[in-house]
Amino acid sequence: MNTILSNLKIQVNEKIYVKDPETSPLGKKIVEQSIFLIDEIGFDNFTFKKLGEKIGSNESSIYRYFENKHKLLVYLSSWYWSWMEYKLVFATTNIVDPTEKLSKAITIVTEKVTDDTNTEHINEAILNKIIIAEFTKTVQTKEVDQENKEGFFLIYKRVINRIVGIVKEVNPEYPFAKSLVSTIVEGSLHQHFLTEHLKTITDCNESVSTTEFYLNLAKNVLR
Amino acid sequence: MNTILSNLKIQVNEKIYVKDPETSPLGKKIVEQSIFLIDEIGFDNFTFKKLGEKIGSNESSIYRYFENKHKLLVYLSSWYWSWMEYKLVFATTNIVDPTEKLSKAITIVTEKVTDDTNTEHINEAILNKIIIAEFTKTVQTKEVDQENKEGFFLIYKRVINRIVGIVKEVNPEYPFAKSLVSTIVEGSLHQHFLTEHLKTITDCNESVSTTEFYLNLAKNVLR
DNA sequence: CAAATATAATAGTATTACTATCAACTATGA
DNA sequence: TCATAGTTGATAGTAATACTATTATATTTG
């Protein structure tokens, strides 16, 4: 996986950006540093002006890459889920036993992320923290239907449906495969959030535990 | 329940408001109409100025009740979960069989809400729509730890832990009761959202189905 | 009726979320 | 190597947001 990812470019829907940030040093810096700044001050307090100051660049230059901060967050999310899809595919390819395949998939998608050193300008561990704290904000807007039509959430839906396929291999009779998987994926982000901030309503306390909970859940539901 | 609720006042943590909106006609109007306006234009586009125009009142008057729009949303959420707790308690009291009790509880908490005509100025059906679309925004902020300390989310956590108690009656051996319940409660809001906006990653399509999915899930996990 | 309280109207500030313009610098290719 | 296209930076400006402060006017209560 290592060598392959370093040659592969994560593809993000062109409609999300004004200019592809991967095509210039400034673009890469915007992406790289926005991850740190959003993690640091939170998306709600994040502005292009502050990011400009952080990277020693002008606010107006950032607008040449992203229409607004919402689009930047959608970009980061798309990148994340696209990267997640690679991890998923590589972890499950050539595994014949559906149950084992599903376990690997659930593990990939629910465990805490460590930095993938193959992508130079993106720190996946921090990006994962952002996804945990802010991902629902990319979807939960009044513009969701419009943006869904434009394909902003395709990658996310593809990740879900890839796992749905595995669930159906494990148990073709189970009638709620899609809801189960979307519950696991979204729910694991939520459990990670609770582990950090509202500990009294979760049993998860370290990275492995959230995964354990969902592995156990899936096993019980699909047996 | 009807007669009792019409006499009971839903209690909301005093730190959430500047002045209790239940104590004046203007306060009630602010709460009543904010629900309609947030539903209509979304929380992100909602401002006190727009609300003032809608209710024929001045922006500055609204600030005398709520510090900012975030606090107003926290107020609406607290009200909602408090009301949900009443429904829960009344639906499960005097039921001896834990399994039946849990089924009632899961049904209450996952089903689509219809207006409760006993509360004059609050339309619960619309409020439920707001909770589905915006609830995570009340929690997912940089101030979550501070606000949690001040007790802003106590009611929500109490609802979760009340159901956790029932889960433990059903199966005292199950090691993830808290995570299961928080997954169900938060997850059902998410499934309702997907049903409306991202239909390709959910199996739920009408009110009953989300409940069915989670009843089935809980049954399989706890047997 | 007086005093206290609630509300409305107006004004003002700092920040946000942009857009527009123009100058400077950089890379390319003829 | 020069011309030119494209990128970035600097500055300015606008409308909206998120408030705070002040004063006037109603309304309630004792």
UniProtKB/TrEMBL annotation, chains A, B:
Pfam families this protein is in?
A: TetR_N
Q: Which residues bind DNA?
A: 47-66
InterPro entries (alphabetical): Homeodomain-like_sf (IPR009057), HTH_TetR (IPR001647)
- Single GO MF annotation: DNA binding
Alphabetical keyword list? DNA-binding
The UniProt record lists the HTH tetR-type domain at: 24-84
Name recorded for this polypeptide: TetR/AcrR family transcriptional regulator
Q: What is the scientific name of the source organism?
A: Flavobacterium yafengii
